Every structure is written in C-alpha cells, then in structure tokens.
Fold:
Amino acid sequence: MSDQQRHGIIVGVDGSASSLAAVEWAARDAAMRNVALTVLHVVAPIVTGAQGWPGVPVTADYVELQEEQTARIVEQANAAAVAAAPSHADQIGYEVVYEPVLPALVEFSRQAEMMVVGCRGQGGVAQTLLGSVSAGVVHHAHCPVAVIHDGPVPPAHLPVVVGIDGSPASVGATEI
Structure:
C-alpha cells in the first residue's frame, strides 16, 4: 500500500486510562502532521461457552450494557482527542467494529500511517496468561506503532528512542 492510500493515524481505545493517554498523544501527533485521526474501538465477540460445550444465551440486558459501554468509551475518547487537539477536531473520526481485538487492530494497521495503542502495564504472569494486545500489535502491525503509557507527559527535550532491525517495516519507523 502506498503512502497516498494510507489513512492517517489510527488509535485503538478500550476505555482504560492508558488508552485515553494514547488518544491524547495520537491527537496531538495527528495535528502536528496534519493527518486524519481515527479513534477505533473494537468490541470482542461475546464468548458464552467453552469449546465443546453449548453456549449460554446472551440476554438483551447484557447486549444493551455492552452497547452503552461502547458508546461511553467512544464518547470519552473523542472528547479527549478534541481536547488534546481542538484545532484538528474536523479531522478526527471514529469507528466501532465487532471482531476479535488483535486481528482487527492488525487489519486496520494496513490502512494506517501509524497505529497508536495504550499499555496497561500488565506483565509477568498476567501478560503470559492473558496475552497483550499492545505487544501483539507491535509484532504484527503493517505500519509503525506507538505504545503510550499512562502518566505525565515527558519533557519535549528528551530524546526519542526507535528500535530498528533493518527490515523495511522498521525503516519506516525512522521516517516518522
């Protein structure tokens, strides 16, 4: 995919503090580069049974609760993006998809100049047992990825560290 076909920055959000930090960072970066920002919320499929066992019916109340939570996450993320880059508000959009999270983010990375995700900081056993969406995006994305931690914004004079391995994908990170 050529750069002309790419669609700016896509930031994955899940309602966590680190995803809001990622939204703010992505909005400022999109404004600085004058590219579009898409706030992407991926709603994972509802798993109601174990493999080989029948599933439990999902109630209408649960579906309604999931829809309310999705709306709240998207609204909060959009508000954070506009607050971080008010002059860029007309180039901020959102999308909600209902798919497994990591494959959806990786697929969207095909369209992005850069993907931005938060990092909840789960490590050790939790990361091994649960997997890590941010690590999965870093390893499988088709574009540069920024992983943003929640916390104070570091001073602007600090250096930026970019890891490269000589592959075409890593060379793209140096062009940012």
